[in-house]
Amino acid sequence: MIKKMVMLCIVLMTGVLQAESENDQVNAIGSQLPNHIRSLLIEEMQAITTSMDVIFRAIIAGEHDQVVPQAQAIHDSFIMAQKMTEADRKILEETLPEAFIKRDQAFHHLSAELAEAARNEDQAKQIKLYQDMQNACIACHQNHALDRFPNLKNVSTGE
Ligand code: HEC
Question: Is residue 158 a part of any domain in this protein?
């Protein structure tokens, strides 16, 4: 009897572990994309990171006019969109889950708002939006790039 229960426990636990790793797989957009599209995504992410660095320096210096073009650049940063063929677009449509697209849109919307706040020289709003954008980076990485950022697995994003 005890032996049976132990066996059952092991079977159940294996099931849970398998489901978890499958879940991580589903949560990994990059590895599901063909290499050339994944490279474009990485290129875009690196460009965004550079813009975020520049924006940070500009915000803490009160240089609103420096924030505007960088925030706008993130908003317009469709390296992927610009360099993709029709066929690539189709693959992307089939691969990207709805939740990812929603996050991406929300993120781009934040960058437009940041550009606007900078145009209005609203320092407090820029800081708030910058933080919202950081949270959006983390939330998307946690939900869709766990293979690239495994340390985010158990991080609370406050979502
Ligand atoms: C809508 C989803 C999404 C948002 C929002 C997002 N990212 Fe990413 N990011 C990804 C995915 C997916 C990957 C993993 C790509 C891969 O697996 O190769 C990634 C990877 C990266 C990488 C690693 C690139 C490399 O060299 O491998 C960096 C850096 C990065 N993101 C920065 C950012 C920053 C900074 C922000 C916010 C300002 C951000 N990302 C917002 C989806 C997102």
Answer: no
